[in-house]
Write a structure and sequence with these properties.
Blueprint (H helix, E strand, L loop, with lengths): L20 E7 L4 E4 L6 E9 L1 E5 L2 E5 L3 E5 L5 E5 L5 E8 L18 E5 L3 H19 L4 H20 L9 H12 L7 H7 L4 H12 L3 H19 L4 H7 L5 H12 L3 H8 L2
Antiparallel strand pairs: 1-8, 2-7, 3-6, 3-8, 4-5, 4-7, 6-9
Helix pairs in contact: 1-2, 4-5
Length: about 280
């Protein structure tokens, strides 16, 4: 029932995580996607017209104009265009940077599903405008993905302001600052001690606070940030692997290849080749 098997939003297989993909669809009845194991990234849809239907855990969620559905990684789901109406919507697959923090702490309607109704028409228009920009930016060859992520961040900030979750931990502002600092300067030789100094904490206190809020250690998170950005550069540029490794903070291309293989399951050259297929 999938009308385009090369289409990442329609394909039964999810796209590779870590790369933002977005588009605007208008699909007729028969457009169906089934993902019994979910995806390894996040998926957001915002309905413009018609009706889309999500199925999770035996429950049916109907999406009409102004409704937003956000699926977290690993959430089994099906979705389809409704019979007789079709479904017009914008969507994005993405991995939120850790420093987004509070912006993705939205109330879940079902385990793994955030479902929000935008009854405010002005808010709906603004979110659609942000999507229009980020979709155009995501299609550009060089530098567009970073702009697209900024547009998607705007969407989540708007949603957070309107629907902020009332429960759950709030990301400590010092942890948030450290995450943003690392994300914006991956090439620098960061250490727990140097980052702790920037937020006026001891190294041991920052390490404990970071682990408490993020689940992973500070240096593990930094490694993941570097590898995810390297994956984007491999997919969207022709820069040599050694140059990419250096640009994200790896002094040794051999160590970079080892860590990349461990994280993505294949060496950088194979990853780049598969992305170009």
């Amino acid at each position: 029932m999938v009308d385009n098997h090369n289409d990442p939003a329609a394909n039964h297989a999810a796209p590779n995580p870590g790369v933002l993909i977005a588009d605007h669809y208008n699909r007729a009845f028969g457009y169906t996607t089934r993902r019994p194991r979910g995806t390894r990234d996040w998926l957001i849809t915002c309905t413009i017209g018609g009706e889309g239907r999500f199925r999770l855990n035996g429950r049916l969620f109907s999406c009409r104009s102004g409704d937003i559905a956000i699926l977290k990684p690993g959430t089994p789901h099906d979705y389809e265009a409704a019979e007789g109406e079709g479904w017009e919507f914008v969507w994005a697959h993405f991995v939120p940077p850790p420093y987004w923090g509070r912006a993705v702490q939205l109330p879940e309607e079902e385990n793994g599903l955030i479902f929000l109704a935008l009854e405010d028409e002005a808010l709906h228009r603004r979110i659609l405008q942000a999507f229009e920009r980020l979709i155009l930016d995501a299609r550009t060859w060089k530098g567009g993905e970073e702009l697209a992520m900024n547009g998607l961040h705007e969407v989540f900030l708007l949603l957070s302001r309107k629907f902020a979750a009332r429960e759950g931990p709030v990301l400590d502002e010092r942890v948030e600052k450290v995450l943003q600092r690392m994300t914006e300067s991956l090439q620098e030789p960061h250490s727990v001690a140097s980052l702790a100094e920037e937020v006026h904490l001891s190294a041991s206190r920052l390490a404990h606070l970071f682990k408490e809020h993020m689940g992973d250690s500070l240096m593990e998170t930094l490694l993941q940030l570097r590898l995810r950005h390297a994956a984007k550069l491999l997919a969207f540029t022709r820069r040599p692997v050694s140059e990419i490794a250096e640009s994200v903070g790896f002094a040794s291309p051999f160590y970079f290849t080892k860590q990349f293989r461990t994280f993505y399951g294949c060496p950088p050259t194979r990853y780049r080749r598969e992305q170009s297929l």
